[in-house]
Amino acid sequence: MIGTPNPKRVISVFVLAMLNVSVMASLRNLPLVAELGYTMIFFFIVVAALFLVPCALVSAELATGWTKSGGIYVWVREALGDRWGFFAIWMQWVHNVTWYPAILSFVAATLAYIINPELASSKVFILSIVLAVFWGVTFINYFGIETSARVSTTGVIAGTIIPGIFIIALAIAWLALGRPIEIPFKADKLLPDFSSLGSFVFMAGLFLSFGGLEVTAGYAGEVKNPQKNFPRAIISAAIITFALVMLGALSVAIVVPKEEISLVAGLIDAMKIYLGSYGLSWLLPFLAILLVLGAVAEVNSWIMGPIKALHTTSVHGNLPPFFQNLNKHGMPTHLLLFQAIIVTVAALIILFTPTVSTAYWILTALSAQMYLIMYVFMFIAAIRLRYTHPHIPRVYKIPHPHKGIWLVASIGILASLFAIFIGFVPPTSLDTGSLVQYVALLATGLGIMVAIPLIIYQFRKPSWVLEDSD
Prior knowledge:
This protein is mainly α. The chain is about 65% helix and about 0% strand. It is built from 15 helices and no strands. The longest helix is centred in the middle third of the chain and has 35 residues, at about 285-320. Mean pLDDT is about 80; it is low at about 1-5. Its main location: membrane. Keywords: Cell membrane, Membrane, Transmembrane, Transmembrane helix, Transport.
C-alpha cells in the first residue's frame, strides 16, 4: 500500500500532553543531570530560558500554523525549500539512531537489577536487551497510531510520572529525617566554574533532555482540534518535565556520591539506597519494572513522530519508492524496518568502548549535536515564515510582527550552537580515551550524518515522487 490515507483524529489534548512528556521527561537522564550537583539548578534555569522556552514558543506557533502531518519537515520546507526540509527531518530522525541504544542501555541496566546486578556491567547483556526491546517496540508500531499512542500514554504515567514523584517523595522524607546527604548545600556550588569548559560538558545532555517538543507535530493529522490542543499540550508537558527532571536529579545526587554515579544505573542505585534505608527493598523489582515501562514508552513515542514525518518527505520524492509503503493500519513499515536495522548497527558501539557509561555518553553527545543542528534550522524557518507566509493564521503567535520572533529564535539558535560546540569537550569524570580520538569520533560521526541527506537529495530521481503528493 503506497501513499498517505486520510487520518482519523484520535489524539486528545491529554494524550498529546502525555506523548510530549514521554518524549522529554526521561528519568534515565537523572544520573547525568545529578553529575552537575547543585550547579544543575543554574543549568536548568539557563537551558529553560535559552532553549526550552524558545522551543516551546516556536513549536507552538509553527504547529498551530501548519497542522498537516510532517512537522519539522513541513515547516522548514515551506521556509527554506524541499532540500533543507528533507535535511531537517533527516537530522531529527537520525539523531535517534544513536539515542535509542543510549536510553535502552538504561533499560538493560535496570533489568539487570532484577535478574543479577552484575549484568549491569556486561556489554553483551546490555546489547542483547537493547536490540530485543527496540525490535519489540518497532513491531508494536506496526499496529497503528492509536495502539502506539495508548502504549506511550500508559507507559509515561506508570513508568515516568509515578516513579518520578516517588523518588522525589523519598528524597523529601530523607531530608526531613535528617539523614546524611552527599551534596551538602554551599552557596558557591550553585554556579559552575566559568574558567573551565569541563564544567559545562554535561550541559549538552541537558539540552537533549529538554528537546522533543516539536516531535509530536508529526501527529498533527491525528490530533483533535490541533489549533488549540498543541499549545495546551506543549505548555503542560514543559511544566511537568521541568519539575520531574530537576527534582528527580537532586533526589539522586542527595544519596549517591558524585564519583560513584553511573550514567546508566545511577537512578536504580539511588532507589536501592532509599528503599534499603526505609526497609522497603522488596519494592525495588516493582519500581525497576515501572522504570523500564517508562523508558520503553519514551522510545515508542520517538519512533513514530520522526518516522511519519520522514514518510511525508518520501512521498515528495526524497527517498526511493520502497520507503513509501504503508500497511493496512497506515504505518510506514518499510521505514520502521530500515530504522531498526540502522539502530542495530549503531548499537554495536557498546562493545567497543571502555565502559558502558562511556558508550552511553558518546552516544548521548553525538545524538544531542545532530538534534541541535535540526533546531537551528527550525528557528531559522520560524523567522523566515513570518516574512514569506504572514497570511497563514497561527492560533498561537509570538508577540510583535518581527521583533519577537527574531529575539526568541536568535536566542534559540545561539544556545543550540553553543551546546553543539560544548559536546566536543570530553567529560573529566569518564574514560573517553584521548582528546584527539574523542573529538575525531564525534566529528566524523556528525560529518557523515550531515552529508548523507544532502547526497541522497542530490541524487534523487523524478520517478520517486508519488503521483498524488503535493
